Amino acid sequence: MSDKVNFETLGEIFRQNQTFALMSHMRPDGDAIGSVLGLGLALEAMGKTVHFWNVDGLPDSLAFLPGSEKISLPPAEAPDIDVAIALDTATKVRLGEGNLIAAAKAKLWVNIDHHISNPLYADVNYVDATSPATGQIVYEILQALEMPITAGSRDAIYVAVSTDTGSFQYDSTTARTYRMAADLMERGLAVGDINAKTYDSHPYRRIELLRALLNTLELSTDGKVAHWVMLDQLRIDLALKPEDSEGLIDMIRAIRGVQVAVFFEELPGGKVRVSMRSKDRSVNVCEIATHFGGGGHALAAGIRMAGPIAQAKQQVLSAIAAAVSQKNESF
Ligand SMILES: [Mn+2]
Which of 68, 255, 272, 315 lies deepest, with the highest CB count within 10 Å? Predict the structure, then answer.
């Protein structure tokens, strides 16, 4: 199976079908919501019927996006749809059970993503691991197929790409990314306003979370691995929402000398969510994640694994230590 169909194949699917369900991964981030809205609003502008589903619904932090009120939980009974499209979702399981049930009547599955670990689980796959965000792939699809880029699609695509590139900072950011941003500005994007809504509008509890995380911060003796821990009790005490921790890991990734930052989060029920960020392609955190059943990108990857958290910590930190020391030996 090819990892990339040509855009014309997607164009035919869009033209020949009427009803679409667009979905992205559980605990959605800016790219998950933004790429769904970016493509979905364009399909709507073409007269298509579009369902926008996420098993965790819309995070409050992205409710400023025009059209985001269309995002709903998947319905309990599967409606008649022609095409199910998964965006920004590395494995089908990450869509969540509710989406799979709701999309049961789809005649065709499409998978549009940028995770290198994506196993091409759909009938039609467009997976471009060189793209810094699924939002950028959506932009390229809309451009190539001359689909309408409405104000809603424009803002959603910008936020998708901005949040997945650490505000256009990461190594994954390309010249095309900046050209895309320039084009979106020429289409009327209010860059200061949208960045303020994305980055300068956090609820107070997020900063309380940051304070609690800082109290758990540890640096390895060689100074190359920083990690912090969030126990489930903290979620209860601070009434946290899943999106509250989004992006906080960048604070410890930014420590001078640190090659890998790790965030251990205890989930309700005792499972552990591990987020890893590497500063250096020779320490590939996707490989480490894959070893534990997770996935992602070379510089940003995640795992969901069995607890208890102390054991998960020990296993993951020793795998990272091995990868870091291997890297440093090769120089
Ligand atoms: Mn993404």
Answer: 272
